[in-house]
Design a protein that fits this description.
Strand content: 35-45%
InterPro entries: DUF6232
Largest sheet: 4 strands, antiparallel
Shape: globular
Number of strands: 7
Number of domains: 1
Pfam families: DUF6232
Length: 99
């Protein structure tokens, strides 16, 4: 198993995007679709946040939100690498897993 990002709130591997805090949730990388970055909530007392959203099993989900741009960038990059790994695996083995 390849780990692309490990932090206090999120773990991203070649198989899962796991949210540890605030509420544990796990998303299979192979089932994430339409992954995109969206602006977060604008609060007058805090910096603007950014969100990573996706469609998971047909439902729009919020994967991650942060106003810390460094952490947000690391999570985003880790997820992109996991998705690229999925694409390369699909190209090499096909969607059924055979050569």
């Amino acid at each position: 198993m390849t780990v692309y990002y490990r932090g206090p709130e999120i773990v991203i591997t070649d198989q899962v995007f796991a949210v540890v805090q605030p509420a544990p949730r796990t998303f299979a990388i192979d089932e994430l679709e339409d992954v995109h970055v969206a602006p977060g909530h604008l609060r007058w007392f805090a910096p603007r946040s950014c969100q990573v959203r996706a469609r998971y099993q047909g439902v729009e989900v919020l994967l991650f939100e942060s106003s810390d741009m460094r952490t947000f960038g690391q999570v985003r990059r880790g997820l992109l690498r996991a998705l690229e790994g999925r694409r390369e695996r699909d190209e090499q083995y096909g969607t059924l897993g055979y050569r």
